[in-house]
Each structure stands twice: as C-alpha cells, then as structure tokens.
Amino acid sequence: MKISSNFDGGNIRCLTCRDPQNIQLEIVTDNESHFYQWFYFRLSGAQDQACQLRITNAEGSAYVDGWKDYQAVASYDRETWLRVPTSFDGTTLTLHHTPEFNSVYYAYFAPYSMERHADLIAQAQLSPRAQLEVLGSTLDGQDLDLLQIGEAADGKKVCWAIARQHPGETMAEWWMEGFLDRLLAPDDAIAREVLKQAVFYVVPNMNPDGSRRGHLRTNAVGANLNREWKDARLDRSPEVFLVREKMKETGVDFCLDVHGDEALPYNFIAGANGIPSWTETHLNLLQNYQLELQQACPDFQTQYGYPVAPPGKANMTLCSNYVAETFGALAMTLEMPFKDTKDTPQALEGWSPERSRQLGRANLDALYRLLEQL
C-alpha cells in the first residue's frame, strides 16, 4: 500500500501505511500559518481490503466542529465523488472504506484543481460575451484571472462575483461553473435580459497559490485573504490588492463573495450588517435577495447562519463589509456546507459539485429580480 499527495491541491502526511486497519495520517498546516483542515490524497494497493484511515491530528484542526456528522468523499476517477463512512472520536477522524479498485482518492470535499480552473477560464473566454484580463501575478507567480461578462456602459449596473478566497472551500469554484455556464448561455433568457442591464466582473479563484499548495484558508505566505481587504499589500496579499484596484476602476453595485463553511450544514448568506453606513434600505435589499434565491433554489435557506454584527461593529477587513461600505453596494457572503444539507440531504453525495453548480445558476434568477433596486 502507498499514500501519496504530491499533486495539484494534495495535502496529507503519511505516518504509517503497513496495516490497512491502521493507516495513520496527518493533515499538513498551511504554509506560514496554523490553519489546517483540507486533505486530499491517494491510496493505492489496497483493492478489496477493509481500510481504516486515521487522521490523527483532527482534534487540532481549524474548525473541529466541522468533523461532527461529517463524511469524507472518495473517487476512483476523480470526476464522481461519493461520501464514505467517517467517524470522529474527539481526537482522530477515521475513514472506513473498502476500495473497489487499486487506486482511490480521498478528500475533504470534491477538489477543484488549478488545471480545471485553467480549463474553465479557457472555455469561458471563447464566448463572445466574455473578455479575459489577467490582473497580475500571485506570490507564487500564477495568473490572477478576471472575466468580464458583457459590455460596460453608462447606466448599467456593475456586478462582481468572486470565489475561493479560502482555497480549501472548493465548492465555491464549483458554484462558479454553474454561475458562468448560465451567464454565458446564449439561449438563456434570464442571462440575456440581465446582461442588457448589467456588466459582470468575475474572479473564479481568488487564491491560486493556496489552491495548488493544498491549503485550507491562506495564500502562499499565510495571509487569510478575507481578512486583508482593509489594508491589502502587494507583498502579502496581492490577490486582494489587485481586485480592489480593479473595483475602484469599475465601481461596484453588487458583490457576491462565495465560500464554504466547515461546521454549519446549510446554505446561507451573511450580509454586511454592522457597517457604519448600514441602513434599512440595505437590509431590505439583503432580505429580498435571500427570499428570491430561496424561491429559485430550495437548497438555500434563511433560518440558520452567522450571528448578525451589531450596528457599527462589522469587521471591515472582510470583503463583503469593505465593499459594501466603500462602494455603497449590496455585498454579501454566500456560504455552502462541506457536509450534507440538513434540511435537504442526499446520502450518496451529500452537498456536491453538481448541487453547488445548481446554486450558482439560481443566483442569476435572484439577481434578475433585484437589479432595478440596486
């Protein structure tokens, strides 16, 4: 048997792999950071053997509540990812699985590789609606890709969508696939009408370095990008700095920052409540968007989410708060679960790439209904 993770997005350290009933592993921390929770690795040579893969440092992970009622994903072809029995005893996370083939991949959630990201960008730019701009380089020298969808013009709304500030939250880029697929579909009537009224600026992956390195939450030098918006610097968080500069150039009427949440088994939105300029108008827009999204996609709900910040107490280093205050925009953080959705469970796949894509498509319906109010 062999454990390996030396590939795009891989993360694990093998302690021992002699006994299939006692394979011992550790998740590696993000570079220059204490965060860890993302794992992605390959097991080979264990076909038809009942395996117990024990992640021995799960207790010290960034979000230990994330392991409660959690099921890891596994794949033989790296396209279809199915949930496997997983237990957590308060210290060790154990995956219980008998591989049907000689090679099987396990992950925290279905991975989204930088190669797939390159394919997404390459395919999108073929649309006559899309223009590609490379905003600049990351600290590891990767391109930071921006897609402009539609033509900018006076009177048009300016809509931004960004994803994967936290690279281990791969469901965010699966969401982007659905969102872009809908926005670029030539025969989609909603997309056609939305693009008459708005231009979109889309960053499908804000954190290429963390994505390739197999990080949970940070970039190449341990910066949590969603805590960098107030004081972004080129030498620490160029990803945020470059996007902020582009936002200053375009202006912003609407911004959706797409994430995944480790602990809560729900899809939900966190608004910019608590920013200094928050008004009843902001609140009404936020609530209306959530109601429209719930109508468009019943996997989304409004009952559960993060605590609302008191007036004037918003964390201004977060993207949605910074953008809402700086541009007067409707800015929101959309969260999806690593686990299955509690209210609408699907035992085989749990929350999945396809369900993430469907939620991405549904956001265009919600935005269409609210565009004139922005």
Q: What secondary-structure arrangement, pairings included, does this model have?
A:
Blueprint: E1 2-4, E2 13-16, E3 23-26, E4 40-44, E5 51-55, E6 73-75, E7 82-83, E8 86-88, E9 93-97, E10 103-107, H1 114-124, E11 130-137, E12 143-149, E13 157-163, H2 171-184, H3 189-197, E14 198-203, H4 208-213, H5 238-250, E15 254-261, E16 268-270, H6 280-296, H7 319-327, E17 330-337, H8 353-370
Parallel strand pairs: 3-5, 13-14, 13-15, 15-17
Antiparallel strand pairs: 1-4, 2-3, 4-10, 5-9, 6-7, 6-10, 8-9, 11-12, 12-14, 16-17
Written account of the structure:
- By secondary structure, the protein is of the alpha+beta class.
- It folds into two domains: 106 residues, Immunoglobulin-like (Sandwich), CATH 2.60.40.3120; 260 residues, Zn peptidases (Aminopeptidase, 3-Layer(aba) Sandwich).
- It is built from eight helices and 17 strands.
- The strands form three sheets. It has a seven-stranded mixed sheet, with helices on both faces. A five-stranded antiparallel sheet has the order 1-4-10-6-7, with no helix packed on it.
- β8 and β9 form a beta hairpin.
- 50% of the residues are buried.
